[in-house]
Amino acid sequence: MSEKGMLIVLSGPSGVGKGTVRQAMVAKYGQQFKYSISMTTRQPRPGEVDGVDYYFRTRNEFETEIANGGMLEYAQYVGNYYGTPLRYVNQTLEQGQDVLLEIEVKGAMQVRSKVSDGVFIFLTPPDLHILQERIVKRGTDDMATIKRRMQTAREEINLMTNYDYAVVNDQVELAVDRIEQIIASEHLRVARVLDTYQSMLGED
Amino acid sequence: MSEKGMLIVLSGPSGVGKGTVRQAMVAKYGQQFKYSISMTTRQPRPGEVDGVDYYFRTRNEFETEIANGGMLEYAQYVGNYYGTPLRYVNQTLEQGQDVLLEIEVKGAMQVRSKVSDGVFIFLTPPDLHILQERIVKRGTDDMATIKRRMQTAREEINLMTNYDYAVVNDQVELAVDRIEQIIASEHLRVARVLDTYQSMLGED
User: Fold this and answer.
1) What domains are there in chain A, each with its CATH number?
2) A166 CB-near residues (< 8 Å, 6+ apart)
3) Do A182 and B188 touch (CB under 8 A)?
4) What are A53-89's pLDDT values in tens digits?
5) ipTM over cut 0.85
6) Could you give the count of Cα atoms lying within 13 Å of B12 in the half-sphere of its Cβ?
């Protein structure tokens, strides 16, 4: 098949476990798509590796990329930049490979406006109380930050209407399998395969 | 969940194997949906049972149902009526259960116009030559009928644009699994689950 790859956007509120789900997806189904590594100005958390989890950059470096038109999307979130370098995404899609983005909600909305045939998946917490617990347990933020994140999460869940799918992150394994079903199913959408069928008809 | 059930419409060209795929779905996943038995005026094929495979009715009986507004959809196809009784479908959806229809293409388009949130799946032959082989092998129709069916099939494949998904019936087991993925994935669509999430937000 010479079809263009599919852009899969995994997003959701802060603390919902996007990074964990993405890591599990890469571990289990990593041969089926390419993960686009995000760029950020935030500090690495313990165990995070530059060029694997994120491209860790200074604010100055990040703003230079923005100025050069090199970002598919970017946003500031809790005082730091997060974004997706454009070049890798475009090259990979052109090669016919699916690309996975794991990005913040504001960035996802920018991608939605640019890539109308992307698949937009919103990862949801089982409920907001559990979200609060998770953020507290992570223990790397002060209370003011946590309160700000909770308010942001409420606003973000209201943004769910801008997504195609909502996947509950009740268990990472289950969330990953649901996302895999969505990806497989999206590849069967008429809008994605019509060209192939029309050329089949032409052969007759 | 008190959500309304989802209407799943399986259709495709004559001879593509809709009936076989539907039977395999019922056998493997029958507890997950209710199959809506179609009504037809055609003669039963060997092994087909009234009230199981179809409701077999006379033309007169069928036309009385139409006149009474009792059909969700109906069409004449190769000289016979095929259609879906309305009452069972509505009752089952209201109970929160998914309903599977396996119907002809003309009927599916009528359902599309009435049930905008249905899931419309087009079963496709691996290619039109294999479709021709299958029709010939079935051996119950004369050549004029086969030619008419082939022409109809070409027209129907052009109708694929009116469907949500295209599933190749290369192997029945694979087709069934693809359809199951589609159903699971459609249940995660934001448009279907938004009410649940909004009530969750309200609780906080």
Assistant:
1) 7-36+97-203 (3.40.50.300)
2) A121, A122, A124, A160, B188, B189, B190, B193, B194, B197
3) yes
4) 899 999 999 999 999 999 999 988 889 999 999 999 9
5) no
6) 26
Contact A160 B194 (CB under 8 A): yes
Test mutation, B188, B200, B201, B203, chain A, max A CBs within 10 A: B188
SS percent in chain B: helix, strand, coil, step 5: 50, 20, 30
Chain B nearest-CA distance from A176, in A, is 12
Chain A residue with minimal CA distance to B184?
A181
Distance CA B185, CA A166 (A): 10
What are the tens digits of pLDDT across the range A92-123?
A: 999 999 999 999 888 999 999 999 999 999 99
Tell me which amino acid residue A10 is.
L
Residue A29 CB coordination number (10 Å):
15
Chain A residues in contact with B182 (beta carbon < 8 A) = 185, 188
Neighboring chain B residues of A189 at a CB cutoff of 8 Å: 164-166
